[in-house]
């Protein structure tokens, strides 16, 4: 055959697939379904990155395999196109964001198309399309009507460069997740979504889904459910109680001081009686400059000021203890005040050491006191209470229970559950987002616009510049802003904030099931058939953002009777990043960015696909290597050349049968378990075997083409067609393996004389002992010169003839 020309072949097959609508999901709901999903991209101005094809190819493999297994497969693609980078680009280049989006989408689509993905392009969606965001707004109205969307004055994270409020999740290590600029606090009135109402459901739902462990763990940690107790400490000579939150009420007899956060209201209330008020004020000023993140860092040097003039009383033993103010206690968690138990809490221990405060051990290791001067003793599992009156001798778990009962009976405390999760800041003071469908009327307050008025279109504006006063550019559009109240008909003003980037992606997988529906976000039938998504793969960085947000919306829509399942995704996996040749993140400044277009051009899409699957374990980061790309191209060239060695022999040849069944089994299983690299390695080894032998039967070749097709769909279709095998590879049935035939039927055993190997012998695994020994004696007949004393057979391994 001629050498393989990927340019001709790949274009040809992409056209055939398009013309045939080869990968369209059908609306025949009687067939078994499979819904494979990858995170739809943000169509940035940079175009596709080599990181994108890794997850897209992986699930394309799964989708293609499922079709060959007889499933009606939905593998869709779309554009998550609202957002800041597009808006910023539009401002800089004076092009409307709509135009920028159009250009970027066209480029992305062309690039994805060139990679031969089996997406059902008839179901393409775009979050900026009014027909799409109509339903994003519709869901918002439902949330509002259910009391889950509310407006609140609150200190928000304000990015000084993007000039936009950020959710906590968007602040990474104290800087803006998008631009890396400083984030400061600013008080603003913002729309909030009550995701906290769903905290328990979001934790419990994880039990019923098949997510990789690290995703489950990080969602749970993010929600941060903590069970403990609130306890009231009296303040000497005052009416007020100081309420604290603790997860270790068993340690109440070990409290040696208390700490309030710098923002705690008790400070202002008694400022006249606090003799060192100026020190406290100075300390507060310092604390205000730090983020919660910095303040709660464990390793941070502990600082604080003792409040002179206020003394607390421990409610379980009446002891008087000092109260400190310190920034390691946050106002935003629990009650903003703590009881400090330095003997059993690391942060309290460090604080106590620094300020010379006493330590009282109340928990001992298996009842034996430990040296708490070295470190706090925090092991709950082995802890037994001491120095604690009615708790003495109890294990921690039982002591907590008994203490809670005691507190509740005395009316000084009660059990309490807290969460780290905060409500979702849902406003953005920017143009390129979904308008929030609410108007404000002086008489009626916040009023939802009527559903029949959706979509509420984003008005055309000339200037998208963010404003320094923190208002959205929409606020300047008085024609649009001034409206009438849907409730009383009086004059009212539209909400000018828009929704955050995460809105459209919180429900997009629903729309794919029925993307052209004008009556509903999707029909009940479509949702019932396609949900849940069977396999969703996406970035680890979306675990606490998009993945959690979309689970929240889905659970809400489930409670509203809109969707039929309580969880959106049955299975969730995550891929590792692709790094530059130097092992560092690819970036313009490092000059190590690989453009997928170049790889497709020089080596072909099949090579890029094969390479990205072969690059390493799917869940780990991997470094790019041009040599690796070349190696994958060589592999495909050898598959191409094998067409000249195909014989007329039927079925699998006798010496290849076991191997064929083994490879079918390995590839089939590996594709299910994120082990694309070892599946490809197995096909490479099989290819070597064919070359060693010098020939391949038609059935062996066909099987190889089918197995390889999900990875390298173009070259395999071409070979199938060149060989006139009929139809297309994508229409074939996925090959079955026979478990019994995956096991070698013959084994090689060692033939020994007096324990020394003299020869080897191939025998049937099930051959009887007598027969094996007889055969063994034949191959060493010339060496059997003495008296045979004993004949030993270790089944499947050794025959040993003992001679004198
Ligand atoms: C006494 C104690 C003794 C505590 C002990 C721990 C160990 P999680 O699990 O994260 O919920 N805490 C409570 N509110 C706080 C706040 N606003 N800022 C900083 N720390 C706060 O942690 C709860 C524990 O963190 C609470 O239990 C409290 O310290 C501290 F041996 O109370 B503990
Ligand atoms: Zn009104």
UniProtKB/TrEMBL annotation:
ATP binds at residue 588. Signal peptide: none annotated. Residues 654-772 form the Methionyl/Valyl/Leucyl/Isoleucyl-tRNA synthetase anticodon-binding domain. PROSITE patterns: AA_TRNA_LIGASE_I. A motif ('KMSKS' region) lies at residues 585-589. The keyword Cytoplasm applies. GO terms for cellular component: cytosol. This is Leucine--tRNA ligase. It comes from the Bacteria. Its EC number is 6.1.1.4. Residues 12-216, 421-611 form the Aminoacyl-tRNA synthetase class Ia domain. Residues 220-407 form the Leucyl-tRNA synthetase editing domain. GO terms for molecular function: aminoacyl-tRNA deacylase activity; ATP binding; leucine-tRNA ligase activity. SUPFAM superfamilies: Anticodon-binding domain of a subclass of class I aminoacyl-tRNA synthetases, Nucleotidylyl transferase, ValRS/IleRS/LeuRS editing domain. Keywords: Aminoacyl-tRNA synthetase, ATP-binding, Cytoplasm, Ligase, Nucleotide-binding, Protein biosynthesis. InterPro entries: aa-tRNA-synth_I_CS, aa-tRNA-synth_Ia, Leu-tRNA-ligase, Leu_tRNA-synth_edit, M/V/L/I-tRNA-synth_anticd-bd, Rossmann-like_a/b/a_fold, tRNAsynth_Ia_anticodon-bd, Val/Leu/Ile-tRNA-synth_edit. HAMAP family: Leu_tRNA_synth_B. It catalyses: tRNA(Leu) + L-leucine + ATP = L-leucyl-tRNA(Leu) + AMP + diphosphate. The lineage of its organism: Bacteria, Bacillati, Bacillota, Clostridia, Lachnospirales. Belongs to the class-I aminoacyl-tRNA synthetase family. It is found in: Cytoplasm. One of its GO terms (biological process) is leucyl-tRNA aminoacylation. The gene is leuS. Pfam families: Anticodon_1, tRNA-synt_1, tRNA-synt_1_2.
């Amino acid at each position: 055959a001629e050498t393989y020309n990927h340019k001709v072949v790949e274009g040809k097959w992409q056209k055939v697939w398009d013309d045939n609508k080869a990968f369209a999901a059908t609306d025949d709901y009687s067939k078994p379904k499979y819904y494979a999903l990858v995170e739809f991209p943000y169509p940035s101005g940079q175009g596709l990155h080599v990181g994108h094809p890794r997850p897209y190819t992986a699930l394309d493999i799964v989708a293609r395999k499922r079709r060959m297994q007889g499933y009606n497969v939905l593998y869709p693609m779309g554009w998550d196109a609202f957002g800041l980078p597009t808006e910023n680009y539009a401002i800089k280049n004076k092009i409307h964001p709509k135009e920028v989006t159009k250009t970027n989408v066209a480029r992305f689509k062309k690039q994805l198309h060139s990679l031969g993905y089996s997406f059902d392009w008839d179901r393409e969606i775009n979050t900026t399309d009014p027909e799409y965001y109509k339903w994003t707004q519709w869901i918002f109205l439902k949330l509002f009507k259910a009391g889950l969307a509310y407006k609140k004055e609150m200190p928000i994270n304000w990015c000084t460069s993007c000039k936009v409020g950020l959710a906590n999740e968007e602040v990474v290590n104290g800087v803006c997740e998008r631009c890396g600029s400083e984030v400061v606090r600013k008080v603003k009135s913002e729309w909030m979504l009550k995701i906290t109402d769903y905290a328990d459901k979001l934790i419990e739902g994880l039990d019923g889904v098949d997510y990789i462990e690290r995703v489950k763990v990080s969602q749970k940690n993010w929600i941060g459910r903590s069970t403990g107790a609130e306890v009231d400490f009296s303040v000497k000579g005052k009416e007020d109680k100081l309420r604290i939150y603790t997860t270790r009420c068993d340690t109440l007899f070990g409290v040696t001081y208390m700490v309030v956060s710098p923002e705690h209201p008790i400070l202002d209330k008694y400022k006249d009686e606090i003799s060192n008020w100026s020190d406290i004020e100075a300390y507060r000023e310092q604390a205000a400059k730090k983020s919660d993140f910095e303040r709660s860092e464990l390793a941070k040097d502990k600082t604080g000021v003792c409040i002179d003039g206020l003394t607390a009383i421990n409610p379980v033993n009446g002891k008087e203890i000092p109260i400190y103010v310190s920034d390691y206690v946050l106002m935003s968690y629990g009650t903003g005040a703590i009881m400090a138990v330095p003997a059993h809490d690391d942060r309290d221990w460090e604080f106590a050491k620094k300020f010379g405060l006493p330590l009282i051990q109340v928990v001992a290791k298996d009842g034996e006191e430990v040296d708490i001067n070295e470190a706090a003793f925090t092991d709950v599992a082995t802890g037994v209470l001491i120095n604690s009156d009615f708790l003495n001798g109890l294990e921690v778990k039982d002591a907590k229970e008994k203490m809670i009962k005691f507190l509740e009976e005395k009316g000084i405390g009660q059990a309490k559950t807290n969460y780290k999760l905060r409500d979702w800041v849902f406003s953005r003071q920017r143009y390129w987002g979904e308008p929030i469908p609410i108007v404000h009327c002086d008489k009626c307050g916040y009023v939802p616009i009527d559903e029949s008025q959706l979509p509420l279109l984003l008005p055309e504006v000339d200037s998208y510049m963010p404003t320094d006063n923190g208002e959205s550019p929409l606020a300047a559009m008085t024609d649009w802003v001034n409206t009438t109240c849907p409730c009383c008909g009086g004059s009212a003003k539209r909400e000018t904030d828009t929704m955050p980037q995460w809105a459209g992606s919180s429900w997009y997988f629903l729309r794919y099931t029925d993307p052209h529906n004008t009556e509903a976000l999707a029909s009940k039938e479509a949702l019932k058939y396609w949900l849940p998504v069977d396999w969703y793969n996406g970035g680890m960085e979306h675990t606490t953002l998009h993945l959690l947000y979309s689970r929240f919306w889905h659970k809400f829509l489930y409670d509203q009777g809109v969707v039929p399942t309580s969880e959106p995704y049955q299975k969730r996996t995550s891929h590792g990043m692709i790094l530059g040749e130097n092992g560092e993140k690819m970036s313009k400044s490092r000059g190590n960015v690989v453009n997928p277009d170049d790889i497709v051009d020089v080596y072909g899409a099949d090579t890029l696909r094969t390479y990205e699957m072969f690059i390493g374990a799917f869940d780990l980061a991997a470094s790019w290597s041009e040599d690796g790309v070349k190696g994958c191209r060589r592999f495909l060239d050898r598959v191409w050349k094998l067409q000249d060695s195909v014989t007329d022999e039927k079925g699998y040849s006798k010496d290849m049968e076991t191997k064929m069944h083994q490879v079918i089994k390995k590839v089939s299983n590996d594709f299910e378990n994120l082990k694309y690299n070892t599946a490809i390695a197995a096909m490479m080894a099989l290819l070597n075997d064919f070359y060693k032998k010098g020939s391949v039967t038609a059935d062996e070749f066909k099987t190889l083409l089918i197995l390889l097709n999900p990875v390298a769909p173009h070259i395999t279709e071409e070979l199938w067609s060149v060989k006139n095998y009929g139809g297309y590879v994508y229409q074939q049935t996925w090959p079955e393996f026979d478990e019994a035939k995956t096991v070698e039927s013959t084994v090689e055993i060692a033939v020994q004389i007096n324990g020394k190997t003299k020869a080897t012998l191939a025998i049937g695994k099930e051959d009887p002992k007598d027969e094996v020994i007889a055969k063994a004696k034949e191959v060493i007949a010339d060496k059997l010169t003495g008296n045979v004393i004993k004949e030993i057979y270790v089944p499947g391994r050794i025959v040993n003839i003992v001679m004198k």
